[in-house]
Amino acid sequence: MKKFFAMILVLAMTLSMGACSSPGTSSTASAGQSNAAPASQGSTATATTTDNSQIKIGVSIWSSTDVLGSQCKKMLDAAASALGVQVMYVDQGHESSAVTDSINTLCAAGCKGIIVCNSADSEMTSCINTCDQAKVYLAQFFRVISKDKSPQVYSLAQSSQYYVGTVHEDEPTNGYTLANILINKGKRNICLEGWVAGDATFLGRWEGYKKAVDDWNTAHPSDKVTMTDPQYAGTTAEQGASVAKSFMNSNSKMDSLIVAGGGGDPLVGSIGAIKSAGKTGKIAVVSTDFLPDLGDQLASGGMTAESGGHYCDPLYSFMMVYNSIKGNYKKPANSFLEIKYPYLYVASKEDYDNYAKYFVTQLPYNEQELKDMGAKSFDDLSKEAAAMSIKDVQTRHGG
Q: Is 366 exposed, middle or buried (0-12, 13-18, 19+ CB in 10 A)?
């Protein structure tokens, strides 16, 4: 109840500011702060909305400016422009209190729907309750609530009227694939760099890394692989460099590094630290979240392989929320919608150059395709997400 009244207070404050976003435009605020004027709350969020200029969709994201976050923002801005809706961003740094505050901020700013990349499942209790009270549709991206580890939160998501669903990747398989790339290249002393302890996505990837090591060691008892416990680098390049230096100083046998993620910046710092130590190509590095210079890093030995290309994941959450606002999608009884989005893997400069042609120099969806996506049924939207690949974009755009 206190959170609800706090939200109303922020709403009143933002009303007095009188700022407004135009259709197809975006704005950014800090968690707990709004820079956009709120639209009316309450029952209007449940009604079918035909005037897209009155629709504002909020994005709660760790960062809208780092490597991965900026790619996500570029894609979402294009979708908002194609559909003629407003979009507002709040950067929350994957800090639990900032994640929950961001939902209050976006509700108070008049968003009719919100997509969130939270850190831990526990944060979703507050996020869902806040959106239910404000009658604002909510979906996750890059995240899924664990039915086994967080049964109460999962149950809340099922019963919520406004929690629409989630778009996420198969993180255990992603982790398993990357660790096996190192193992099959003869690497036996793996160091593991995480970003935030307890982060749901990291835990999924870590599960895959551990399974790859365990499977190998079971099959090859005389040629075992070791992997360290994770050290955490947050989401900055400076912290990534510090963790990589710590591993190199403390582990003389280190021959490989998994940078689990964190948006790309920790990887930049880690690669830089390895280069400064004169160990580029000697310490193999795999990671998730493509870097802008990944092709060059693969050619120089700075990177061994990487998974990524998944910055369209939040696009599908955006479309799920948009269609819920429009009255086109109905949440299944005691359940929610779910889309699994595929990773792309690259292990050579040629691989990356092919990716860059269709995902970097241009977006994988053009304006007309984004407009069409906004009118698709959920089944068709889910099929389109599952089909995403370099070949899929080549087929649609030619080349």
A: middle
